[in-house]
Amino acid sequence: MALYKTEIFYLHVNQKISGNIKIFTSATIRRIEKLAAEYELITDNGESFKAENTPILCTGFQNGVKTIATSLFEYKENGEALLNQFDESTVAKNVFLTGPSVRNGSAIFCYVYKFRQRFALIANEIAQRNDLIVDPKKIEYYKKQSFYLDDCFDCDVTCTC
């Protein structure tokens, strides 16, 4: 395992030193095509970029749900996705939302240190629906570590950023 971490770290360091990391701040990717040994990313204006590694979805501050899964959610008048108590879509069963787009009660989960508090809750709900046994001690551990926020009403998880 240590060797794996070392190799990953080494890869990132080499990319940074050799200038292989490129940041595009105003490109909207419309299509991704898998080629033999790389990916081609095509923008909305027809420009294309090549990438050796599998691209990941980076929507920046845009709502990712509205970018890729609009029809799977209902929306409030202010544009927020309407969710149940498990951060699940109210129109598509077993479709859960996590990340900075989630608003639940008075809680705003704008940053990873905030929205990760809901991961174990969602995982527990999925496990229960599939009749999987979840060790109650694990749930208690997550709660003690503030990684299991199951009551979002009257909580202080707000976002000032």
- Termini Cα gap: 37 Å
What structural class do the secondary elements suggest? alpha+beta
Oligomer: single chain
Rg is: 20 Å
Helix content: 25-40%
Largest sheet: 3 strands, antiparallel
The number of helical segments is: 5
Order of helices and strands: HEEEHEEHHH
Q: How would the global form be characterised?
A: globular
Count of individual beta strands: 5
Beta fraction: 5-15%
What features would you describe in this structure?
The protein is of the alpha+beta class and 161 residues long. Among the domains are: 27-56, no CATH class; 64-144, no CATH class. The chain contains five helices and five strands, in the order αβββαββααα. The strands form two sheets. The protein has a three-stranded antiparallel beta sheet, with no helix packed on it. Strand 4 and strand 5 form a beta hairpin. It starts with a helix and ends in a 17-residue tail after the last helix. The relative contact order is 0.08. Mean pLDDT is 77; it is low at 1-17.
